[in-house]
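Need residues for this backbone.
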């Protein structure tokens, strides 16, 4: 890899704005800066055109940004690559603002995610992004997220035996010497079965109105063309026994043949390759910051949710029939039918499957029917409906005065019980009032 890295070293040393130290920068800001620059340039040109009295219509369209933010496209693309390989554990080097969590937490089989970055302050300032949200409760396996302050150029034995490693917009922040160390750490010492790398494509910079040699971020040590990136990736495969596929995200039709804005390399480990010998020391050089255990739903809890949901909706249908039975027009489209003995109501399974709490926990009507039978319910002869007993109300003359006979617990019972005791009077529901009584 020496010839290729020599060229990159020359490019790096010619960049007056770059820093010599290794530093991981936010993944989402580089293109935003370029888009602002492109917008400012466009504004300047328009102003000059107006001052000169020329036609204000621009000859060429200006780049106004991507429909979906580029950083979101990157995270989604990487997440899909991990999902294809059924990854259960992953390290994200250069995690910075922890933004990968929104996409990576959607990987169904992912059990362990470790976020590593050299900048401890940025990690700590963005730990709030790792707070579990409502959508995470639908996971079927628990996801544990560990956060470390660490340098990708240094080996830490705790990072061993992970299925995958991602480096999203990281390598362009490493000086060539550190990039070599990074490659040795990732591809030789840790050696996961999958590595996903993304980096800017310098050929796309013309779309942002940038000049030759100009870079998207002050800390970039180099930005590679497509051929340079692929040359580096091919050498990785030769040196460490991987195969690679190239792709990218962020496209435009404003300028032809510039490729993707952000290019992606997906490395897959080849079995049987004799890697370079390395001393497998037990060393823990990264500094632990925190751990977050995400919620998940077990099969047992799914069954409980399904059972309680079915109970609720069947009770609701029984109430609806009792209240609206004399008003069939109100029941149109529901498919409810009275049984021959007039003691029960047939509720179609297809009607129950309309509710998210049912279909999210039961794959189809047949599975729902089997579940109802095992839970003690009775199905119709064709197996397409479940029978539910009608709810008999004690009185048809419910009045507000009856509230006075209710104790405090009854008056403040749940809304479902109040609904069940309500009666249809004059075509409207009369529900017991639990607020202050007004004369």
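Answer:
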């Amino acid at each position: 890899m020496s010839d290729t890295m020599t060229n990159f070293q020359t490019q790096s040393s010619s960049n007056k704005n770059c820093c010599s130290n290794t530093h991981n920068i936010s993944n989402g800001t580089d293109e935003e800066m370029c888009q602002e620059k492109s917008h400012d340039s466009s504004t300047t040109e328009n102003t000059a055109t107006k001052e000169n009295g020329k036609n204000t219509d621009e000859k060429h369209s200006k780049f106004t940004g991507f429909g979906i933010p580029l950083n979101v496209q990157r995270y989604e693309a990487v997440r899909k690559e991990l999902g294809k390989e059924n990854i259960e554990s992953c390290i994200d080097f250069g995690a910075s603002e922890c933004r990968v969590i929104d996409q990576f937490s959607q990987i169904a089989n992912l059990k362990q995610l470790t976020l590593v970055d050299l900048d401890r302050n940025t990690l700590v300032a963005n730990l709030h992004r790792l707070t579990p949200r409502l959508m995470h409760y639908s996971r079927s396996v628990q996801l544990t997220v560990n956060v470390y302050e660490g340098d990708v150029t240094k080996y830490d034995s705790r990072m061993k035996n992970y299925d995958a490693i991602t480096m999203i917009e990281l390598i362009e922040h490493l000086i060539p010497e550190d990039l070599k160390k990074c490659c040795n750490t990732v591809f030789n010492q840790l050696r996961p079965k999958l590595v996903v790398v993304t980096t800017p494509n310098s050929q796309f910079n013309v779309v942002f109105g940038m000049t030759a040699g100009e870079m998207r971020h002050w800390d970039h040590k180099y930005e590679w063309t497509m051929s340079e990136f692929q040359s580096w990736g091919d050498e990785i495969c030769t040196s460490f026994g991987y195969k690679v596929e190239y792709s990218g995200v962020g496209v435009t039709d404003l300028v032809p043949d510039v490729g993707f804005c952000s290019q992606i390399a997906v490395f897959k480990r080849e079995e049987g390759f004799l890697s370079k010998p390395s001393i497998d020391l037990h060393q823990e050089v990264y500094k632990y910051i925190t751990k977050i255990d995400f919620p998940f739903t077990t099969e047992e809890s799914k069954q409980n949710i399904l059972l309680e949901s079915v109970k609720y909706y069947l009770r609701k249908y029984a109430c609806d029939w009792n209240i609206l039975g004399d008003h069939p027009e109100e029941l149109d489209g529901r498919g409810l039918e009275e049984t021959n003995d007039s003691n029960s109501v047939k509720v179609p399974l297809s009607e129950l499957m309309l509710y998210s709490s049912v279909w999210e926990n039961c794959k189809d009507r047949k599975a729902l029917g089997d579940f109802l039978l095992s839970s003690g319910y009775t199905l119709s002869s064709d197996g397409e409906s479940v029978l539910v007993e009608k709810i008999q109300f004690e009185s048809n003359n419910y009045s507000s005065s009856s509230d006075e006979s209710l104790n405090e617990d009854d008056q403040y019972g749940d809304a479902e019980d109040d609904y069940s005791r309500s009666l249809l009077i004059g075509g409207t529901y009369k529900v017991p009032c639990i607020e202050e009584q007004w004369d």
